[in-house]
Amino acid sequence: GNSVTQMEGPVTLSEEAFLTINCTYTATGYPSLFWYVQYPGEGLQLLLKATKADDKGSNKGFEATYRKETTSFHLEKGSVQVSDSAVYFCALSRQTGANNLFFGTGTRLTVIP
Amino acid sequence: DGGITQSPKYLFRKEGQNVTLSCEQNLNHDAMYWYRQDPGQGLRLIYYSQIVNDFQKGDIAEGYSVSREKKESFPLTVTSAQKNPTAFYLCASSHQPGQSSYNEQFFGPGTRLTVL
Known about the structure:
The complex is a heterodimer of chains A (113) and B (116).
Chain A: E1 3-6, E2 11-14, E3 19-21, E4 23-26, E5 32-38, E6 44-50, E7 56-59, E8 62-65, E9 75-77, E10 86-93, E11 101-103, E12 107-112
Parallel strand pairs in A: 2-12
Antiparallel strand pairs in A: 1-4, 3-9, 5-6, 5-10, 7-8, 8-9, 10-11, 10-12
Chain B: E1 4-7, E2 10-13, E3 19-25, E4 31-37, E5 43-51, E6 54-57, E7 64-66, E8 76-78, E9 87-94, E10 106-107, E11 111-115
Parallel strand pairs in B: 2-11
Antiparallel strand pairs in B: 1-3, 3-8, 4-5, 4-9, 5-6, 7-8, 9-10, 9-11
Protein backbone atom coordinates (compact mmCIF):
# COMPACT_ATOMS: atom_id res chain seq x y z
CA GLY A 1 0.00 0.00 0.00
CA ASN A 2 0.86 3.66 0.08
CA SER A 3 2.03 5.43 3.22
CA VAL A 4 4.19 8.30 4.39
CA THR A 5 6.20 8.42 7.60
CA GLN A 6 7.29 11.79 8.81
CA MET A 7 9.62 12.93 11.52
CA GLU A 8 7.64 13.63 14.67
CA GLY A 9 7.61 17.11 16.02
CA PRO A 10 7.38 19.61 17.30
CA VAL A 11 10.65 21.09 16.12
CA THR A 12 11.91 24.33 17.65
CA LEU A 13 14.83 26.17 16.07
CA SER A 14 16.51 29.49 16.45
CA GLU A 15 16.41 31.91 13.55
CA GLU A 16 19.09 31.16 10.91
CA ALA A 17 19.47 27.54 12.04
CA PHE A 18 19.56 24.64 9.56
CA LEU A 19 16.35 22.67 9.14
CA THR A 20 15.84 19.03 8.23
CA ILE A 21 12.47 17.29 8.39
CA ASN A 22 12.68 13.62 7.51
CA CYS A 23 10.15 11.88 5.30
CA THR A 24 10.14 8.30 4.05
CA TYR A 25 7.50 6.59 2.00
CA THR A 26 6.11 3.25 0.94
CA ALA A 27 4.43 3.07 -2.43
CA THR A 28 3.66 0.82 -5.33
CA GLY A 29 4.92 2.07 -8.64
CA TYR A 30 6.51 5.48 -9.01
CA PRO A 31 4.69 8.14 -7.01
CA SER A 32 5.14 11.87 -7.13
CA LEU A 33 6.27 13.41 -3.84
CA PHE A 34 5.26 16.70 -2.28
CA TRP A 35 5.83 18.98 0.65
CA TYR A 36 2.89 21.11 1.73
CA VAL A 37 2.93 23.86 4.35
CA GLN A 38 0.04 24.91 6.58
CA TYR A 39 0.10 28.23 8.39
CA PRO A 40 -2.12 28.62 11.49
CA GLY A 41 -5.84 28.48 10.69
CA GLU A 42 -5.29 28.09 6.96
CA GLY A 43 -5.46 25.44 4.28
CA LEU A 44 -2.43 23.74 2.78
CA GLN A 45 -0.12 25.35 0.25
CA LEU A 46 2.16 23.42 -2.04
CA LEU A 47 5.76 24.15 -1.08
CA LEU A 48 7.62 21.95 -3.56
CA LYS A 49 7.35 18.71 -5.47
CA ALA A 50 9.33 16.07 -7.36
CA THR A 51 7.90 13.68 -9.90
CA LYS A 52 10.70 11.19 -10.49
CA ALA A 53 13.80 9.73 -8.88
CA ASP A 54 16.72 12.15 -8.33
CA ASP A 55 14.52 15.19 -9.01
CA LYS A 56 15.11 18.07 -6.62
CA GLY A 57 12.18 20.29 -5.74
CA SER A 58 12.93 23.76 -4.42
CA ASN A 59 11.03 26.87 -3.39
CA LYS A 60 11.56 29.78 -0.97
CA GLY A 61 14.93 28.38 0.12
CA PHE A 62 13.50 24.93 0.88
CA GLU A 63 14.77 21.86 -0.97
CA ALA A 64 13.98 18.15 -1.11
CA THR A 65 15.44 15.40 -3.30
CA TYR A 66 13.50 12.33 -4.42
CA ARG A 67 15.68 9.38 -3.33
CA LYS A 68 14.31 6.14 -4.70
CA GLU A 69 17.06 3.98 -3.20
CA THR A 70 16.25 5.13 0.33
CA THR A 71 12.54 5.90 -0.38
CA SER A 72 13.02 9.33 1.15
CA PHE A 73 12.13 12.96 0.47
CA HIS A 74 13.67 14.95 3.31
CA LEU A 75 12.95 18.68 3.53
CA GLU A 76 15.88 21.03 4.16
CA LYS A 77 16.48 24.74 4.52
CA GLY A 78 19.81 26.32 5.22
CA SER A 79 18.64 29.26 7.32
CA VAL A 80 15.13 29.36 8.76
CA GLN A 81 13.18 32.51 9.57
CA VAL A 82 10.45 33.22 12.09
CA SER A 83 7.99 33.38 9.17
CA ASP A 84 8.73 29.70 8.39
CA SER A 85 6.87 28.66 11.56
CA ALA A 86 4.12 26.35 10.34
CA VAL A 87 3.16 22.70 10.01
CA TYR A 88 4.86 20.82 7.18
CA PHE A 89 3.29 17.78 5.51
CA CYS A 90 5.01 15.26 3.29
CA ALA A 91 2.70 13.58 0.77
CA LEU A 92 2.70 11.22 -2.16
CA SER A 93 0.34 10.62 -5.01
CA ARG A 94 -0.10 7.74 -7.33
CA GLN A 95 0.97 8.08 -10.92
CA THR A 96 -2.14 6.49 -12.35
CA GLY A 97 -5.77 6.14 -11.47
CA ALA A 98 -7.33 8.13 -8.67
CA ASN A 99 -5.29 11.15 -7.84
CA ASN A 100 -5.68 11.47 -4.11
CA LEU A 101 -2.75 12.30 -1.86
CA PHE A 102 -1.43 10.23 1.04
CA PHE A 103 -0.19 12.47 3.83
CA GLY A 104 2.24 12.12 6.68
CA THR A 105 1.12 13.26 10.12
CA GLY A 106 2.77 16.67 9.79
CA THR A 107 5.68 18.28 11.62
CA ARG A 108 5.15 21.52 13.51
CA LEU A 109 8.09 23.91 13.18
CA THR A 110 8.52 26.88 15.49
CA VAL A 111 11.33 29.32 14.79
CA ILE A 112 12.28 31.66 17.63
CA PRO A 113 14.09 34.97 17.15
CA ASP B 1 -8.04 35.44 -9.09
CA GLY B 2 -8.46 31.70 -9.49
CA GLY B 3 -8.80 29.61 -6.39
CA ILE B 4 -10.88 27.50 -4.07
CA THR B 5 -13.32 28.95 -1.58
CA GLN B 6 -14.82 27.19 1.39
CA SER B 7 -17.56 28.56 3.54
CA PRO B 8 -18.11 29.17 6.28
CA LYS B 9 -14.72 29.34 8.01
CA TYR B 10 -16.23 28.31 11.36
CA LEU B 11 -19.39 26.28 11.82
CA PHE B 12 -21.16 25.20 14.98
CA ARG B 13 -23.92 22.62 15.06
CA LYS B 14 -25.84 20.68 17.64
CA GLU B 15 -25.36 16.95 17.89
CA GLY B 16 -27.77 15.04 15.65
CA GLN B 17 -28.06 17.73 12.99
CA ASN B 18 -26.86 17.35 9.43
CA VAL B 19 -24.63 20.13 8.13
CA THR B 20 -23.38 20.96 4.62
CA LEU B 21 -19.96 22.45 3.92
CA SER B 22 -19.49 24.42 0.74
CA CYS B 23 -16.56 24.14 -1.68
CA GLU B 24 -16.31 26.11 -4.92
CA GLN B 25 -13.41 26.34 -7.39
CA ASN B 26 -12.84 28.47 -10.48
CA LEU B 27 -9.64 26.75 -11.59
CA ASN B 28 -11.45 24.69 -14.24
CA HIS B 29 -10.32 21.52 -12.49
CA ASP B 30 -12.15 18.28 -13.16
CA ALA B 31 -11.22 16.54 -9.91
CA MET B 32 -12.20 17.59 -6.41
CA TYR B 33 -11.52 16.12 -2.97
CA TRP B 34 -12.59 16.36 0.66
CA TYR B 35 -10.14 15.71 3.47
CA ARG B 36 -10.55 15.69 7.21
CA GLN B 37 -7.80 16.90 9.54
CA ASP B 38 -7.69 16.08 13.24
CA PRO B 39 -5.16 17.53 15.72
CA GLY B 40 -1.74 15.92 15.39
CA GLN B 41 -2.79 13.84 12.42
CA GLY B 42 -2.35 14.01 8.72
CA LEU B 43 -5.19 14.55 6.31
CA ARG B 44 -7.50 11.68 5.56
CA LEU B 45 -9.55 11.37 2.38
CA ILE B 46 -13.34 11.38 2.78
CA TYR B 47 -14.63 11.50 -0.81
CA TYR B 48 -13.32 12.45 -4.19
CA SER B 49 -14.81 13.18 -7.60
CA GLN B 50 -12.96 12.95 -10.88
CA ILE B 51 -15.77 14.25 -13.05
CA VAL B 52 -19.23 15.79 -12.78
CA ASN B 53 -21.96 13.43 -11.57
CA ASP B 54 -19.45 10.88 -10.34
CA PHE B 55 -17.74 10.46 -6.98
CA GLN B 56 -15.96 7.77 -4.99
CA LYS B 57 -15.56 6.96 -1.32
CA GLY B 58 -12.23 7.63 0.30
CA ASP B 59 -10.78 6.08 3.41
CA ILE B 60 -13.27 7.50 5.93
CA ALA B 61 -16.55 8.02 4.02
CA GLU B 62 -18.90 6.66 6.69
CA GLY B 63 -21.24 9.34 7.99
CA TYR B 64 -20.58 11.70 5.07
CA SER B 65 -22.24 12.32 1.71
CA VAL B 66 -21.36 14.44 -1.33
CA SER B 67 -22.77 15.57 -4.65
CA ARG B 68 -21.13 16.82 -7.82
CA GLU B 69 -23.81 18.43 -9.98
CA LYS B 70 -21.51 21.15 -11.32
CA LYS B 71 -17.84 21.16 -12.18
CA GLU B 72 -17.19 24.11 -9.88
CA SER B 73 -18.93 22.79 -6.77
CA PHE B 74 -18.45 19.78 -4.47
CA PRO B 75 -20.47 20.19 -1.24
CA LEU B 76 -19.94 17.83 1.68
CA THR B 77 -22.73 16.88 4.08
CA VAL B 78 -21.77 15.71 7.54
CA THR B 79 -24.67 13.57 8.69
CA SER B 80 -25.82 12.66 12.17
CA ALA B 81 -24.37 9.19 11.54
CA GLN B 82 -20.82 10.56 11.74
CA LYS B 83 -19.73 9.69 15.27
CA ASN B 84 -16.97 12.28 15.72
CA PRO B 85 -17.69 15.14 13.33
CA THR B 86 -15.72 17.87 15.09
CA ALA B 87 -12.68 18.48 12.85
CA PHE B 88 -11.08 20.76 10.28
CA TYR B 89 -12.36 20.01 6.77
CA LEU B 90 -10.31 20.79 3.70
CA CYS B 91 -11.43 20.80 0.09
CA ALA B 92 -8.98 20.46 -2.79
CA SER B 93 -9.02 20.25 -6.58
CA SER B 94 -6.73 19.16 -9.38
CA HIS B 95 -6.60 18.43 -13.07
CA GLN B 96 -7.44 14.96 -14.29
CA PRO B 97 -4.77 12.28 -14.80
CA GLY B 98 -3.29 12.79 -18.23
CA GLN B 99 -3.38 16.59 -17.98
CA SER B 100 -0.37 18.68 -17.05
CA SER B 101 0.39 18.93 -13.32
CA TYR B 102 -2.54 16.61 -12.71
CA ASN B 103 -1.18 15.29 -9.43
CA GLU B 104 -0.79 18.75 -7.88
CA GLN B 105 -3.71 19.57 -5.61
CA PHE B 106 -4.82 23.05 -4.65
CA PHE B 107 -6.45 23.51 -1.28
CA GLY B 108 -9.13 25.80 0.08
CA PRO B 109 -8.77 27.62 3.42
CA GLY B 110 -10.78 25.01 5.31
CA THR B 111 -13.90 24.93 7.49
CA ARG B 112 -13.62 24.20 11.19
CA LEU B 113 -16.73 22.31 12.30
CA THR B 114 -17.58 22.04 15.98
CA VAL B 115 -20.46 19.88 17.09
CA LEU B 116 -21.80 20.83 20.50
